[in-house]
UniProtKB/TrEMBL annotation, chain A:
One Pfam family this sequence matches: ThiS
The protein's name in its UniProt record: Molybdopterin synthase sulfur carrier subunit-like
Gene name of the encoded protein: LOC103375244
Keywords attached to this entry: Molybdenum cofactor biosynthesis, Nucleotide-binding
Keyword Nucleotide-binding: yes
UniProtKB/TrEMBL annotation, chain B:
Ranges of residues in domain Rhodanese: 347-457
Function: Plays a central role in 2-thiolation of mcm(5)S(2)U at tRNA wobble positions of cytosolic tRNA(Lys), tRNA(Glu) and tRNA(Gln). Also essential during biosynthesis of the molybdenum cofactor. Acts by mediating the C-terminal thiocarboxylation of sulfur carriers URM1 and MOCS2A. Its N-terminus first activates URM1 and MOCS2A as acyl-adenylates (-COAMP), then the persulfide sulfur on the catalytic cysteine is transferred to URM1 and MOCS2A to form thiocarboxylation (-COSH) of their C-terminus.
tRNA processing listed as a keyword: yes
NCBIfam families from the UniProt entry: PRK05690.1
Organism in which the protein naturally occurs: Stegastes partitus (bicolor damselfish)
GO cellular component: cytosol
E.C. designation(s): 2.7.7.80, 2.8.1.11
GO biological process, one term: Mo-molybdopterin cofactor biosynthetic process
Catalytic reaction(s) noted: [molybdopterin-synthase sulfur-carrier protein]-C-terminal Gly-Gly + ATP + H(+) = [molybdopterin-synthase sulfur-carrier protein]-C-terminal Gly-Gly-AMP + diphosphate; [molybdopterin-synthase sulfur-carrier protein]-C-terminal Gly-Gly-AMP + S-sulfanyl-L-cysteinyl-[cysteine desulfurase] + AH2 = [molybdopterin-synthase sulfur-carrier protein]-C-terminal-Gly-aminoethanethioate + L-cysteinyl-[cysteine desulfurase] + A + AMP + 2 H(+)
Top-rank taxon, per record: Eukaryota
Protein's recorded name: Adenylyltransferase and sulfurtransferase MOCS3
Cystine residue pairs: C316-C324
Amino acid sequence: MTAQVLVLYFAQSVELTGLKEEELPDVPTPISSRDLWTLLLRRHPRLAALQHHVILAVRQQYVAVGDQVVTLADGDEVAVVPPLSGG
Amino acid sequence: MAQEVCCLKAQLKEKEKEIAALKKKLAQLEKSHPTVLELHDKVTPLTPLTSNPALSNEDIMRYSRQLLLPDLGVRGQLNLSKTSVLIVGCGGLGCPLAQYLAAAGIGRLGLLDYDEVELSNLHRQVLHGEENQGQAKALSAANAVKRLNSTVECIPYHLQLSSDNAVQLIQQYDIVADCSDNVPTRYLVNDACVLSGKPLVSASALRMEGQLTVYNYRGGPCYRCLYPLPPPPETVTNCSDGGVLGVVPGIMGCFQALEVLKIASGHGSSCGQQLVMFDAQDARFRSIKLRPKQPGCAVCGENPSVTQLVDYEAFCGSAATDKCLKLNLLSKDQRITVQDYKSIMDDAGPHLLLDVRPLVEVDICHLPSSLNIPLSSLQERKSEHLQLLQERISELKQQMAGDCRPPVYVICKQGNDSQKAVQVLDKMSGSEVDNIAVKDISGGLMAWAKRIDPTFPQY
């Protein structure tokens, strides 16, 4: 099974990918959050700079990058959120 | 002779006018601040906040519009007057936060900042005025807040929050707001709040985005639960590098004020297990539901390894400031000073001056002879830019006799990106472009403005 998801990029991930959002047509599902992150890294190798410091969210829910398995449906939002520290 | 006397008289009159204006200004200021605020340069014990059993008639009139809200009411207002809030950072977030907390009638405000007011702060740090330049931000903010509401007790702290003073300071307050501008301070404030059991209303802003979460609150996560490891310092962008539209921290600071007021009044915050993100481009807020606090967290978990404050600058590998750090990536012979470049320019020898800043910065100011190719284009090997570079190198080679390597001098704002560009160009030299002799101009355009051309703009 695959799903078409919308990936939203925030803060530094916008610079690293050059995108604010993109549609990914064939994301396998169910998928572990680690594999989902790896899939994004393959598309945008520069995202590696955020490894271990990024929040991944699926359908506005925090997902720890690891073994957690997520089930995706068409139209689901995946958000890549690095921390901001300015003020 | 007569003319000189006339001229002196006119000058004297002008000066007298100036003195009169200054006297007037001073009188006005003294009138508006009957009590002179004392700037604290160290943490001292505070007397307990005295609580009023009831609202005075003046309180009722002043706060009437919010007393009418069932969400606040008299009880909520009295709760505000009993609450003390420590604001860490009196900048783009801290200014609007302090302003609304004071206006709403918070009992005590601790205002902490180590910096002084600069001209480049004024577009977003709205409590400070032109006349406050050079003044401690904590004092400037406290004076502004006092003008707004003299019943609020203000304590300005002109000090660097550190592992030695953070717990002692934070445990004297009920709620802490993180309005800081750097990663080490964010971890320090988080850990001190966890160790002291205080809720932490934390916001941040950069460019056109903001984030807000209330940490260590009602079973929710702390900053370390979300970010166990600090980001590598070279991946962190600060406001002085990345820029920020003033109103964006303004909105986030107001948002912090809202959550602080909800906690202080007894209503409670709904951001304890939520990361709220603000996108100013699309004028959109989004929320991410977070996990509860993590049993394995190093500071708020079940077996914490952090049981007292540590060295946060060492932990993060960066200084607790948003000032630009100076990189040193190159050897001495790969760098020249701005004075060296001035002589090269004066000698008019054939060379290429390559400005590697983003276009938006080149639009602010640039040296007339420079070619602009942003560092990111070099790193990504953008073909149109590489072609342009090769063309200019070929032109230089034609101008120069023999088969020597054309000299390329690389410049940016402060001399960090230019060093990275030199590394990239060194790799490209002889393969992706013809052989070149690349050197970095140390200190960049800001050094040029300071040492060579004082009319060149600084930003």
